[in-house]
Design brief:
Strand order of the largest sheet: 1-5-3-4-2
Shape: elongated
CATH architecture of the largest domain: Alpha-Beta Complex
CATH topology of the largest domain: Conserved hypothetical protein from pyrococcus furiosus pfu- 392566-001, ParB domain
Mean pLDDT: 95
Largest sheet: 5 strands, mixed
Distance between the termini: 39 Å
Radius of gyration: 22 Å
Helix content: 55-70%
Length: 274
């Protein structure tokens, strides 16, 4: 099925089919696959694997594609990336980013040891000071070991989001540290920037999240615990700004032959209609 025909059949908003958003997600999955299968090293194998992942959105459709990416990022790494990648109010681009403009996404390893801020320039200045020679040498050793744990993946871009005027790394902190140790000035990055409010708007709400909420609501009802009001409000807020989320809730999370599901859906849609 062609991309155009599949898009017409699935009937989601056009930005969920944008090739750059899909490319960002594909590159993330390609990197994670290398970490999940560290003993697979043959280049020809990874060329084949990468090509198959690149084709997921065409062969499976964006509905399964975005759910699959979420299952990997959240299931293995507890990172909820998909809503941000797919938000209509987030503008994305891929480019070489000056390291001096970046911030690490957290305190770890040498950053914690040197007790410095998470700004990349500050880390760069500190780690090359003579008093931190041991930290630098140890970092080089650990980075080398980490880099050799899997098939090569450092060519993939890091994942950056602009937060409060700071370009913060969401995924790829090790690669940023490696670039600093290697004395590079730039690093390839995909950069997300908020262009309108709210930050999450017309984004993909993972279908599995909605299915879980509907499932656990029914289980609680069977145990004599009525969580309807809480569940209804939670689902309504999750899908209020997402037409794809409303579609997935009504068409896939709710079973049309289940009275408890239908009653829950009635309450949710009543709130959304106000």
């Amino acid at each position: 099925m062609s991309m155009e025909n599949r898009q017409e059949k699935e009937n989601f908003l056009p930005h969920l089919y944008e090739l750059l958003r899909i490319k960002i997600a594909v590159q993330y999955v390609q990197g994670e696959m290398r970490k999940l299968f560290p003993e697979l090293r043959e280049e020809v194998l990874w060329r084949s694997m990468d090509k198959q992942i690149e084709d997921w959105h065409q062969k499976l459709g964006v509905r399964i594609f975005w759910n699959a990416v979420h299952s990997i990022s959240m299931g293995f790494r507890l990172k909820s990336l998909v809503p941000w990648i797919t938000s209509l109010n987030m503008k994305w681009e891929e480019k070489e980013m000056p390291i001096k403009d970046l911030w690490f996404g957290g305190q770890f390893g040498p950053i914690k040891e040197m007790n410095c801020s998470q700004s990349a320039p500050n880390v760069r200045d500190k780690i090359f000071q003579e008093e931190n020679r041991e930290i630098l040498d140890n970092s080089k050793k650990i980075l080398k070991e980490k880099g050799e744990e899997t098939a090569p993946r450092d060519f993939l871009p890091i994942f950056v989001v602009k937060k409060k005027e700071k370009f913060t790394v969401i995924d790829g902190n090790r690669r940023l540290l490696q670039a600093i140790v290697d004395k590079k000035k730039n690093i390839l990055a995909v950069i997300g920037e908020l262009v309108a409010e709210p930050p999450l708007f017309e984004h993909w709400v993972p279908t599995s999240l909605l299915v879980d909420l509907v499932f656990w609501h029914k289980r609680q009802m069977e145990f004599g615990k009525d969580t309807t009001e809480t569940t209804v409000r939670m689902i309504a807020e999750l899908i209020r700004n997402s037409s794809a989320g409303r579609k997935e809730f009504n068409e896939r999370a709710v079973h049309q032959d289940d009275e408890t599901h239908l009653k829950l859906a009635e309450f949710v849609n009543r709130i959304l209609a106000v």
